[in-house]
Amino acid sequence: MLEAVLSPKRIVSVAEMQALERRAAAAGHSYGAMMEAAGRAVASALWGRYGAVSYLVLAGPGHNGGDGLVCADWLRQAGASVQVYLWKRPAQEGTAVGLWLARVEEAGVAVADAESDPSLATLRAWLQQADVFVDALLGTGANRPVTGSLAAILVAARTAQVARSPAPPLVAVDCASGMNCDTGDLDPHTLFPDLTVTFACAKVGHYQFPAAAAVGELAVVDIGIDPAWIAAVPTFVLDAAAVRAWLPPRPPNSHKGTFGRVLLVVGSEAYPGAALLASSAAGRVGAGLVTVATIRTVWAQVAGRLPEPTWLLLPAAEGTNGAGIAGKAAEWIAPQLSGCRALVVGCGLNQTPETCTLLAHLLERPLPATVFDADGLNGLAALENWAERLPADCVLTPHPAEMARLCGRPVAEVTAHRWALARQKAQEWQCTVLLKGPYTVVASADGQLAVLPVATAALATAGSGDILAGLIGGLLAQGSSPFAAACVGAWLHGQAGLQCAATLGEAGVVASDLLPLLPPLQQQLRGAPRHSRGDANRAGERGVSSRAGH
After folding, report:
1. Among 68, 157, 307, 429, which one has the highest count of C-beta atoms within 10 angstroms of its own C-beta?
2. How far is Cα 279 from Cα 264, in angstroms, rounded to an integer?
3. pLDDT tens, 224-246?
4. Contacts of 146 (CB under 8 A, 6+ apart)
5. Helix (H) or strand (E) run with residue 520 in it
6. Together in a domain, 79 and 140
7. The pLDDT of residue 376 is above 70
8. Which of 371, 385, 425, 383 is nearest to 403 (CA)?
9. Which residues of 513-545 are buried (b: 16+ CB within 10 A; e: fewer)?
10. What integer is the mean pLDDT of 381-400?
11. Residues 216 and 262 in one domain
């Protein structure tokens, strides 16, 4: 009975999912077959987690309700106690949904509906008896407010959960009823599941707030759609499997030059810590050589705490918040660029005309793969035709306000259309765009969009973005492509934030707490290190045990 549960990898809109289903049906895999596969997969997930307990399936009249009815029948066959409560009966008895309803009724499953139970007395009694609730009322295409008897059913289920201790677990079929799977909007009546079992691909709403909070654990299961069609979907979840494939290699016959040099143009008197954090992250992620280009007053504060980098001291210019890097400093930086694989510009620079001049002069020169962050982005936004002057391989890492400046749009519009805007601008500007926020997105110039399912207040702290910029720069120095570097950097940054939240708490984490976690996170991804030849000789080569002499 057990079904394969897939990683929640690809993410589709409602229209994209419907297109996949139509394509499968045209190829001979009928809607009825997909419904049966979906319901069987939900039953398998329930059985694997909860076993032979009592289940109450809340079913609607459409395909989602049909999935729930199939699930109910499979649970019955497995030996579980099952009851089905219908919001509405199917409009036509001969449909796939109607046939499955007839099947479960003929098999002796207790079935009631809201029309014949106007007081919901039967529903409330069943809600008190069931060990697990299954929400199969509305599917992914629903986008209207929840009203009437449907709202009453959901209110009754929520009331029962609150009244019982412990609360019965709730499992959503495809999505929680009341979730808009395109926009991420959430109806006030929506129940919050412990588990969502969705089909073929995750849906956009599963990863858009506020709906992302109404998902619980997400399991994506196979319903027979061609994997090649799913693999062609350009939007995906940024998970450990994807990141592992993009980690730069670390061959044993290497030296520091193997892992590249990154130059960071960072810091000012007001923000010296940005230089420390960004350059530390570049080293912690594995760059072979790190050079910090900054003014002498920043060097004097930071160098004693950070012995590993080399330093390029630049002329200073006075600003409203103290000295920053002078615009003419590009003349000092230019000779260093030919020996660098990567450049990071912006962390802690400041927003002055001198910064804009510095950026303008740098953009006149051939640049290596470049990360523009913080005031590097603000400085770009102040330059005419800046997008036309970007280097070929670059990553922009804006938060919503910086993205708004780059696009010339209100912050609210950026926040409301983060995915579409990141993808559109990455293609328009021909660069990689990492748009920060809860569930950060990374968009490539060729239309891919990676979604990082991390939202933690532990990362909402000054300097966190400087570490992310340094991570990406350090990965670029090791030869990663801009998109891969942004994805890996975002994932490492997010996982470090989650670990800090778990061990230190979400309040009080400071950016430097992330740094020591970065090497072990990479090591965990790579797996156990291989023995060197000397270790192998000592331990016994080709399977000869090191215990032989004991």
Report:
1. 68
2. 7
3. 999 999 999 999 999 998 899 99
4. 138, 154, 177, 178, 187, 188, 189, 190
5. helix 518-526
6. yes
7. yes
8. 425
9. bbbebbeebbeebeeeeeeeeeeeeeeeeeeee
10. 96
11. no
